């Protein structure tokens, strides 16, 4: 399966666009309300679009690695400036905007354009790489239209949704569809819990909102399944319930502090069958795990009494804990079960668990 993050889009449409055949036009004629069973999204779009923004990004590509790196001849080499586009939505009238981390991750300049065409320079408040969520701040002349995060736990497969954003750099656009699935793990990271939708989303939609029919944001459009690079009717959104604490932390502190053990882990197998638990494959020197006495080969089966079924569950459970908290790990070592107390550390960006 090919899963593509919705990278900031720099594609320009061709001068000529193919027109739909007259037969197709005839089949789609008439107001949406006249089509049995299909909702009319016009009122919803009119209400929420003022809070949806387009994001233009200038970033610098890293120059390719060469044998000259680190030598005097390597000095002064700079990557090429590239431009991209993404989407976002205003979460507070004062100018707080939510988008994807991969939209602004390496940005040297970010410009936000609101629905009325006003452009604002934007500051990156913070980025959480594990959930691919970023927060921007602009300084508007007055209060802006804003939308709120809904409760994604309440969404059901088959419910109507509307995606909004800046596909292919076109500016404010909406598409509609349904919730196709929940809880999708696409291998993006330990916090994978994506909402899947068939509402068409494309490059440039990154960071845009996925609305329920009440006008609440229940997801942040992040990735698509696409053999061609364009919408194939399978898109993925970060659920609002996962995004909410991240957004709150970024507003408060500009960062998300996550727990860390300092171990590499894998799913355990015994005689070709998967065991429940997370197998410790390595322990980083000087890490919280090392100080607590964890060893390679330990099988962690519970965290604070809650069963751990997979290595991903352990990484996700630890990452969700505040640094400094002492937890109880239940593990099997040499065929015997025991509990070990571990004081959780602060997670570096490049570590697993």
TrEMBL record:
GO terms for molecular function: serine-type endopeptidase activity. GO terms for biological process: proteolysis. Pfam families: PDZ_2, Trypsin_2. Residues 1-34 form the signal peptide. It comes from the Bacteria. Keywords: Hydrolase, Protease, Signal. This is PDZ domain-containing protein.
């Amino acid at each position: 399966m090919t899963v593509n993050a919705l990278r900031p889009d720099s594609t320009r449409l061709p001068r000529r666009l193919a027109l739909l055949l007259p037969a197709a036009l005839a089949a789609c004629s008439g107001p949406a309300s006249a089509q049995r069973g299909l909702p009319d999204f016009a009122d919803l779009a009119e209400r929420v679009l003022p809070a949806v923004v387009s994001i233009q990004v200038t970033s610098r590509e890293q120059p390719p690695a060469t044998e000259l790196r680190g030598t005097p001849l390597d000095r002064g080499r700079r990557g090429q400036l590239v431009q991209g586009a993404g989407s976002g939505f205003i979460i507070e009238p004062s100018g707080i905007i939510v988008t994807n981390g991969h939209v602004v991750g390496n940005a040297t300049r970010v410009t936000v354009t609101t629905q009325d065409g006003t452009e604002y320079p934007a500051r990156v408040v913070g980025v959480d790489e594990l959930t691919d969520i970023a927060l921007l701040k602009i300084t508007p002349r007055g209060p802006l239209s804003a939308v709120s995060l809904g409760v994604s736990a309440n969404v059901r497969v088959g419910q109507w949704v509307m995606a909004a954003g800046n596909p292919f750099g076109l500016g404010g656009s909406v598409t509609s569809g349904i919730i196709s699935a929940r809880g999708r793990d696409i291998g993006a990271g330990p916090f994978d819990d994506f909402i899947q939708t068939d509402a068409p989303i494309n490059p440039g939609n990154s960071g845009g909102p996925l609305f329920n029919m009440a006008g609440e944001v229940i997801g942040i459009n992040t990735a698509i399944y696409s053999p061609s690079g364009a919408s194939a009717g399978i898109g993925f959104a970060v659920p609002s319930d996962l995004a909410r604490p991240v957004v709150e932390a970024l507003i408060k502190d500009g960062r998300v502090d996550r727990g860390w053990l300092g171990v590499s882990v894998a799913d355990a197998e015994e005689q070709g069958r998967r065991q429940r638990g997370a197998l410790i494959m390595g322990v980083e020197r000087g890490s919280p795990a090392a100080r607590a006495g964890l060893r390679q080969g330990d099988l962690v089966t519970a965290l604070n009494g809650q069963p751990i079924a997979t290595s991903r569950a352990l990484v996700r459970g630890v990452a969700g804990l505040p640094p400094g908290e002492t937890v109880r790990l239940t593990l099997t070592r040499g065929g015997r079960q025991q509990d070990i107390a571990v004081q959780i550390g602060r997670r570096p960006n490049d570590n697993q668990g």
